[in-house]
Amino acid sequence: MSLSVTRENFDEWMMPVYAPAAFIPVRGEGSRLWDQQGKEYIDFAGGIAVNALGHAHPALRQALNDQAAKFWHTGNGYTNEPALRLAKRLIDATFADRVFFCNSGAEANEAALKLARKYAHDRSGAYKSGIVAFKNAFHGRTLFTVSAGGQPAYSQDFAPLPPDIRHAVYNDLASASELVDDTTCAVIVEPMQGEGGVVPATREFLQGLRALCDRHNALLIFDEVQTGVGRTGELYAYMHYGVTPDLLSTAKALGGGFPIGALLATEDCASVMTVGTHGTTYGGNPLATAVAGEVLNIINTPAMLNGVKQRHDWFVERLQAINARTGLFKEIRGLGLLIGCVLAEPFTGKAKQISLEAARAGVMVLIAGANVVRFAPALNVSEEEVQTGLDRFAQACDHIKAEVSS
Predict the structure, then answer these.
(1) pLDDT tier at 150 (50, 70, 90 boundaries)?
(2) Among 394, 360, 365, which residue's Cα sits nearest to residue 23?
(3) What are the residues whose beta carbons fall under 8 Å from the beta carbon of 392, sequence distance 6 or more?
(4) Exposed, middle or buried, 204 (CB in 10 Å: 0-12/13-18/19+)?
(5) Which of 280, 288, 320, 328 has the least C-beta neighbours within 10 A?
(6) For residue range 253-286, what is the model confidence (pLDDT) as tens digits?
(7) Which residues are annotated as part of the binding site?
């Protein structure tokens, strides 16, 4: 007999590192979810930019079921066909020559930072260990990646932190220039900061970082955990900018909801990672790579990527109309289907309140800090789902405006 559970059980049984919503989703289809009581939600959160093809996509279910009927896991003493096929797809679609599979974005960034340190130590010596990252960045929750992320709230309670990591101001090339020197082994940057407020990089900034890394023989790492796999309207966001990194981390949307991450690398960079230098038990398992292969088959097409750009316009046009009536936002920014609405006075600090009110109205949205409401829906979200969801979001915005005005 199945155990009956409620949201209150989370507070009794789970380690309190999350504050989940008051409802428990139990079923999804496309960009809709239903909770235990049968209430419907339009999902514009996308599992934090993970569910790139929505919920229960038939082709992904088929890929998972087909592989599950064969075998699930062997460990890294063996390779498997789905992993090799996925690696070749990623290599053919990007700058990369080599791929390392893992289970999450944090693991992909951990691997990138470890590779960068080893590359510098092998080629230049132990003195070359500096890492330059950016304020308000987010790269994961391991000790190394949370130290690289430029948000002290996530790292300060876990000191002492890994040393020789410094943080420049995002989109400020002069600030980065002050920190990058011949002791720098790597610069890690998000082409668009996600958790940091949905802030796209400027072309000049990323081009300048590429030039700085070339000048000082440092590796340029693009963290595309949130921006990758079609999220911005290109397969990877670096393709918007004409700037090619040495290493690129990808996860989230890569598995369409099944946990997987990957580090993409040039041949030169990958050559320093020899047998035993790094590893993972579950990374590259046949279940995850079979699903991710089908995700890439569907997303990496001109029709799908152009559709993301079209959907961006649907969202922005409607959000601007909502804003014209309510005045909640001072800026609407982002690329593709990663969109941030920056709150205006007197609504600053109310992003979480807006997201909770949106859920009550039947639409799921994200936040990116206290002042940004974030949208990261499925890349194939329908026009009807967009309109219905934004109708509900508009109701939530009207409620917040009335509450603040009263």
Answers:
(1) confident
(2) 360
(3) 42, 358, 361, 362, 363
(4) exposed
(5) 320
(6) 999 999 999 999 999 999 999 999 999 999 999 9
(7) 105-106, 138, 141, 223-226, 280-281
Tokens of 379: 């890349």
* Closest to 385 (Cα-Cα) out of 27, 35, 38, 31: 31
Quote the CA–CA distance of 52 and 73 in Å, as a whole number: 25
Please, which pLDDT band fits residue 119 given cuts at 50, 70 and 90? Answer: very high
* 130, β-bridge pairs: 184
- Which residue numbers belong to the known binding site for pyridoxal 5'-phosphate? 105-106, 138, 223-226, 281
User: To the nearest whole number, what is the mean pLDDT of the chain?
Assistant: 96
The residue to which tokens 């890394």 are assigned: 213
Residue type, 330: K
